[in-house]
Design a protein that fits this description.
The complex is a heterodimer.
Chain A (H helix, E strand, L loop, with lengths): L2 H8 L1 H18 L7 H4 L1 E4 L3 E13 L17 E2 L6
Chain B lengths: L37 H8 L28 E3 L5 E4 L5 E3 L3 H4 L11 E4 L13 E5 L6 E5 L5 E3 L6 E3 L12 E2 L6 H13 L7 H6 L6 E31 L6 E25 L2 H4 L8 H6 L9 E2 L9 E2 L6 H20 L10 E29 L6 E8 L5 E3 L5 H26 L1
Parallel strand pairs in B: 4-14, 9-14, 10-13
Antiparallel strand pairs in B: 1-2, 2-3, 5-6, 7-8, 9-12, 10-11, 10-14, 14-15, 15-16
């Protein structure tokens, strides 16, 4: 077995302890819960419109996702453009 | 709330009017309108949109009378939306505000800000103690609107309710009566806590008496909105996947095309509930457990009935202290979140995900209705520094949805975590020892 594999195995104890602590803490205290208004509110949307065009290429990256992927992080606000009229 | 995070990669826009800023006081203007040219002045001084008037003329004197016999001994019939006269047993139904004021209609046609009369701005000089002159005997009866909305005349036993829409925020447009009975709420709380006993604080378990649950009407603004949103960012599609190296050094690499992605969505939102009390709207989990009460939303607000203080007899209530303008940043934040959820499906072809970088919201129109919603609350005060922490277990008074915060016995939880960690570490060392 390589050195990398060995180090990874050694982290199992602390990682397991921390993971279990947070899992149980959240189960009891429910600090991560809130109203899921994105899906629990009656929303009627017209068909989504939009455009896309290729601007660049990435070669030989080791990352499996785009950096800063926030497609599911609805509540994470990004730069707000003001004075927009559609 | 996650809106306090610094959004990568561009720093947030923090100028005037951003969600992080306190909005200007309604009606205030940094420039005196009289110094402006006539067309602009006319626009500024034009009357505000008319509010929907939900005040009930027939209840102005504070006496809710049975329509059949005239008695004021009126209670909500438990588990229903009916009011019952305790004297002649007459039962009648409150008027649903949905139809009465047309609240479910024309959301896609909404323009500007429409505020129902019970959701109007709170006047700072209005006291929460209100006194009535009893029309039965002439005595003065005082009601403290901070916590209750009904009182009994000590002399002639008439029951009073605060029905008039005084400008202190205590009287909403509508009320959603309790459906879940107390025994049911107690059972749900017990069931919830029974699943969380092992690591619960010892004192909490010893003092656990779910029978002490109280029924509280909490103040909310129910908002309909008509809005458009635009989002722009980068999306990536994988074009090639390959490995380099060999054996243990083997690593996977990817090639991808990067696209500039833009999306636009027009949408309407029906009955979005927002806490209209500043304390309840503060969801900072380090200092309070209000997120528990937030989680049991939503309610079937379509069934709310026109305000009648008799529904509150036997329950306590909390007063609204936030105006429409205070809640607008929160609404815009939630509308943006909804828009982002709506466009998610349309970018599913970007297999490596999308990084939204810019967003814009255009709110065409909103309609605000103030409502009392029913919540069964069990609370436990955990002692500690800075006054400790107040833990809530809340049951939605309509749907029965239950959520709670159970205080944790820290040493027990830590010991368990460390024990499991040590066990795992032992296995890891054993594997390492046996393979080397």
């Amino acid at each position: 077995m390589s050195d990398d594999g060995g180090l990874w195995l050694l982290a199992m104890g602390p990682a397991g302890a921390t993971g279990l602590y947070w899992f149980l803490y959240r189960y009891y205290r429910n600090t991560d819960k809130s109203h899921a208004f994105e899906h629990e509110t009656a929303v009627e949307a017209k068909p989504v419109t939009g455009s896309e065009h290729k601007v660049d290429e990435v070669k030989g990256t080791k990352e499996t996702r785009i950096r800063g992927d926030n497609v599911s992080a609805y509540r994470k606000r990004v730069q707000r453009i003001r004075g927009d009229t559609s | 709330m996650s809106n306090t995070n610094n959004p990568p990669p561009v720093p947030p826009y923090t100028g005037p009017g951003s969600p992080q800023d306190v909005p200007p006081v309604p009606g205030s203007s940094p420039i005196d309108p009289n110094t402006l040219p006539e067309p602009i002045r006319d626009e500024l001084l034009a009357p505000d949109p008319v509010a929907i008037d939900t005040s009930a003329e027939e209840l102005k004197d504070g006496l809710n009378r049975c329509p059949k016999c005239g008695s004021t001994e009126i209670r909500q019939k438990p588990g229903s939306d009916l009011l019952i006269c305790l004297y002649c047993r007459n039962e009648w139904h409150g008027t649903r505000v949905e139809e009465e004021f047309g609240l479910g209609e024309g959301i896609d046609q909404l323009k500007g800000t429409i505020i129902a009369s019970g959701a109007r701005d709170i006047a700072a000089d209005v006291a929460s103690l209100m006194s009535f002159k009893c029309t039965g005997c002439g005595a003065e009866v005082t009601v403290n609107t901070e916590s209750t909305m009904t009182a009994r005349c000590h002399w002639c036993r008439h029951v009073f309710g605060v029905n008039e829409q005084v400008a202190n925020g205590a009287v909403p447009d509508a009320v959603l009566p309790f459906h879940i009975k107390k025994e049911d709420a107690v059972a749900r709380i017990r069931q919830f806590v029974d699943k969380r006993r092992l690591f619960a604080l010892k004192e909490f378990k010893e003092q656990f008496t779910p029978e002490n649950v109280t029924g509280v009407y909490l103040p909310y603004m129910i908002v309909d909105g008509n809005a458009s949103a635009d989002v722009a960012g980068k999306g990536e599609i994988k074009t090639r996947e390959y490995t380099r190296g060999s054996g243990d050094k083997k690593e996977t690499y990817y090639d991808a095309d990067v696209y500039q992605v833009e999306r636009h969505v027009d949408f309407t939102v029906d009955d979005l509930p927002l806490e209209s009390s500043a304390e309840r709207g503060n969801l900072d989990t380090r200092t309070n457990t209000n997120n528990i009460i937030n989680t049991i939303l939503p309610f079937d607000t379509k069934n709310a009935v026109k305000w009648n203080a008799s529904f509150l007899a036997g329950y306590s209530s909390e007063k609204r202290n936030q105006d429409v303008e205070h809640l607008r940043p929160r609404l815009e934040d939630q509308l943006l979140s909804i828009a982002r959820a709506q466009v998610e499906q349309s970018v599913s072809r970007y297999g490596r995900g999308v990084r939204w970088e810019q967003e814009a919201l255009n709110v065409h129109g909103t309609r605000w209705v103030s409502m009392y919603l029913p919540v069964w609350l069990y609370s436990y005060q955990q002692p500690g520094s800075n006054g400790g922490l107040l833990h809530y277990i809340a049951v939605n008074g309509r749907t029965g949805e239950t959520m709670g915060s159970v205080p944790v016995q820290q040493w027990k939880l830590l010991m368990t975590a460390i024990t499991v960690g040590t066990f795992l570490e032992g296995i890891a060392l054993w594997i390492l020892g046996s393979t080397s």
